Amino acid sequence: MKFVIQCVKHASVTVDGDVIGKIGRGYMVLIGVCDADDEAVADKMVDKMIKLRINKDAAGKTNLALADVDGGLLLVSQFTLYANCKKGNRPSFVEAGSPEHAEALYNYIIERCRERVPLVQTGSFGDEMAVELLNDGPFTIILDSDKL
After folding, report:
1. Which residues contact 146 (CB under 8 A, 6 or more apart)?
2. What is the average per-residue pLDDT within 112-121?
3. What is the CATH number of the domain that holds 118?
4. What single string gives the DSSP state of each residue in 89-123?
5. pLDDT tier, 109 (very low <50, low <70, confident <90, very high otherwise)
6. Quick one: average pLDDT of 13-40?
7. What is the pTM for the complete model shown?
8. Does 80 participate in catalysis according to the annotation?
9. What's the domain count of the chain?
């Protein structure tokens, strides 16, 4: 499982001209799932993400977690995080989880986050989305379950 976590001042997701998810300060998170991932992996990833101290304190040091800054989450499924570009110029996505498996885990991640974070917004699984964000920093972290 892979999470690309971007600290944002604000972020939104639009589908067919309608804003379906929107947050102010917090994290816009791209989520990639492979078939080997399960709920235990998702739990570890969510726990790590929520506890990361990557927000600036009064002294400008990255020392505060999401809860410390009353941050929200915008969670967006992104199978292209599993793109394999080793061979040729056209990426292969065979390492990405099957749509059924990925959607189930994506929904599981959303529910786990909603248990711990007051504001959780989402994209729309499998739909064409326009994601807008204003990076804060910019500060971007890549969490990979293979490296936790």
Report:
1. none
2. 98
3. 3.50.80.10
4. SS-B-TTSPPHHHHHHHHHHHHHHHHHH-S-EEE-
5. very high
6. 98
7. 0.95
8. yes
9. 1
User: Residues of the chain with pLDDT > 70: what percent?
Assistant: 100
The answer to whether residue 78 is catalytic is yes
Catalytic residue among 6, 78, 121, 122: 78
The total of other beta-carbon atoms located within 10 Å of residue 3's CB is 23
Q: State the residue range of the domain holding 52.
A: 2-147
Structure tokens at 71: 């941050």
Options 3, 14, 62, 79, the catalytic residue: 79
In angstroms, the CA 46 to CA 44 distance is 6
Phi, psi of 117 (to 5 degrees): -125, 125
Give CA 145 to chain center in angstroms.
13
Phi and psi at 75, nearest 5°, equal -105, 125
